Amino acid sequence: MNTWKLEEHELDLSNLRKQESLFAQGNGYFGWRGTFEEGGVPNSLEGCYLNGFYETFPIKYPETAYGYPGQGQTMLNVMNAKTIRLEADGEPVRMDPDKIREYHRELDFRTGVLSRSFVFAASGGKSIRVAVRRVVSFVRKHCGAIAFSVTPIDFSGKLTIMSALDTKSSNQNADKDPRIGTHLPENCFERIETGRNGNTLHAVQRTIRSGLTVACAAGHTVTGESGCDYTCGEQSLELAFAFDCVPGSTVEFEKYIAYCGETSLCGGDGDPLTTVLGETEAAAREGFDVLVSENESYLSRYWETAGIEINGDDYLQQGLRFNSFHLIQSVGKDSCRSVAAKGLTGEGYEGHYFWDTEIYVIPSFLYSNPEICRNLLEYRYQCLPAARERAREMGHKNGALFAWRTINGAECSAYFPAGTAQYHINGDIAVAVKNYVQVTGDAGFLEECGAEILFETARFWRDLGNYSEERNGMFCINCVTGPDEYTALVNNNFYTNRIARENLWYAHSIYTKLEEKNPRRLSELREKIGLGPEEPQEWKRAGDAMFFPYDEKRGVFLQDDSFAYKADWDFSGTPKEHYPLLLHYHPLVLYRHRVLKQADTVLADFMLDQYISDDQIKRDFDYYEPLTTHDSSLSVCIYSIVASRIGYLDKAYDYFLRSARTDLDDHKGNTKDGVHIANMAGTVMCIINGFAGVRQYDGRLELRPLLPGKWKSYKFRLRFRRCLIEVAIAGEGVLLTLLTGKEMSLVCWGRTLELTENNPQMVPLNPADTAAPKEERIGIL
Ligand code: BGC
């Protein structure tokens, strides 16, 4: 098995949609599903998406209420410029399994190139060899290209290559499954302009409601053609090139494509049409191979820090690389967009951004690509005005409430019990700011954007919760939904209260630091958001008094106030085909029972484990594990990480297995709608935070590495402040090497190490050998 590639040796149309998601390409700006250039295959889902490019539509509620979001947003399937159709003496070359021989397809994680080759058996015993390479550029964010090469094996005659820009595109319609489809009208675009200039086609469209412009251009490099026809219809613009061929002669055909779309937060990159025309021309001038080699350098830098090597398990190694590759393909790399739940690989969840970004994707990039994390957080900063507006709408006099699901910053979740009620999104963003700042030391970001996010979210918590006399004056947050979507609208969700406290405390501590270090910026900020002098102290007081439901009898943290009183779910009486439960039971039935869709308390125990003993984590894990269905793909990775922490290495490994190949092996049965980005990030976290036990507490890096029995060794790199270290874990121990930087201090299995240049250090794997001091971890509860 080549662990750097995803390969397919047979043309199997039965799993076409799933394969189209797996073979999808993207660069965080735009993405293409892995469809065949020829099209025309039944069941295929064509998909060209621009991250953050969307249409709005009115959400129709048969029974509405105050504050329900009025507008939905859906990432649009835009014009398809990939289409290339081939005819041999008038016979179309189709992806028909009966006529295709020597089929091979692969996606290379080191170049990002999707290659496909086959021999087409045409009628009359003629055969043609076709090889297609396609690339989406990581360096030129608007650009992609296709190199199409055709060789008649045993006939002379006429070959025609028709290259189109299909201007008619639409999204999938809503389905019974709430995770797929949209309610968009069929046509979302008005045509602004279409045309041809030489061998370049272009089209400009504008969305009807959101008013965003998208332009696309497709230029062609062709040699040896005997003619070229242009047609322009309602559905597409097309150039047909004719070639006179003899056996063995190869026609090389290249198509250079660029997309440019506006977003409501940032506009476009200049005039979209001028941009795409300029970009296609520049790319064509450089040539296909240059685009590939630029990608190769980009990705080799990526793998240098983000690559994780496992020695002893190719199957998992491939899964891990595949997931890391899709992450870099999907994540927005400027502050105008984030990362959709399915990346740019499909239409599941309508291209919306969720907490998946802050709690999964950012942690997975935190120690390898902090620049990406900063961009993602800056995107949230740009959403602050919308979040403030939403807080006012929700009845809060100050502060900001970020949207549970969104593209442009406004809330567009139509089901509030599992949408707006997930207030924890505010704390998720705040904790991501904290981790980013502490790992990078990026004071500039903190002062420019981070502090404002922290202050506004802290104010919101203070206003959302209340001190309850019945609870001895403790601070309670009522009527919220935590991460587990099989429980809704509860009081004192443990995760929410935990993350809110962190948000309140950190906002207070940053306020105090700014008072000392940058009072000018602080007073600017205070003025900008009208912050009263008594407010920061109030944040601290609310955090200190935060209430956490605890079951004394079992010694576990309760997911919420009601959890202990709920009925048990009849797991043994639930048939296998009833999972995921959300497709078979009314939400109220689920809400009434002790059954979890995904990690909730266990997630808080991982994220904020500085306040809690390992024994407590173990009791919580043992209690919640049998109640958790993992119907959400965001769950198994968290259970793997926590299992590692408490020494359940076999369980950690099993959960990791499930996470690593979720999409490759289609564990959820819905990879056809797009890959599961948060889970992919979770796979990376299983290694870094799970097996290697990496944590950072207030800027101090700690590791507790373990070696799963099935592996000989594994290694990865960590960027921390200005340093880069390599962590290599094998049977002999953990070898820590400082690769960049002068010195770095860290704690490995309780032992403080000072790493210096040319002085690698080895720490035994067995914690008993290092006599790790047991820290007092119980915080203020
Ligand atoms: C999960 C959410 C998640 C969303 C998008 C849902 O199934 O329950 O936690 O944010 O999917 O990935």
Automatic annotation (TrEMBL):
Residues 321-684 form the Glycoside hydrolase family 65 central catalytic domain. Residues 695-755 form the Glycoside hydrolase family 65 C-terminal domain. SUPFAM superfamilies: Galactose mutarotase-like, Six-hairpin glycosidases. It comes from the Bacteria. Signal peptide: none annotated. Substrate binds at residues 355-356, 597-598. InterPro entries: 6-hairpin_glycosidase_sf, 6hp_glycosidase-like_sf, Gal_mutarotase_sf_dom, GH65_N, Glyco_hydro_65_C, Glyco_hydro_65_M, Glyco_hydro_65_N, Malt_Pase/Glycosyl_Hdrlase. The active site is at 485 (proton donor). GO terms for molecular function: carbohydrate binding; glycosyltransferase activity; hydrolase activity, hydrolyzing O-glycosyl compounds. Pfam families: Glyco_hydro_65C, Glyco_hydro_65m, Glyco_hydro_65N. The keyword Hydrolase applies. One of its GO terms (biological process) is carbohydrate metabolic process. Keywords: Hydrolase. Residues 8-260 form the Glycoside hydrolase family 65 N-terminal domain. The keyword Lipoprotein does not apply. Belongs to the glycosyl hydrolase 65 family. This is Glycoside hydrolase family 65 protein. It comes from Breznakiella homolactica. The lineage of its organism: Bacteria, Pseudomonadati, Spirochaetota, Spirochaetia, Spirochaetales.
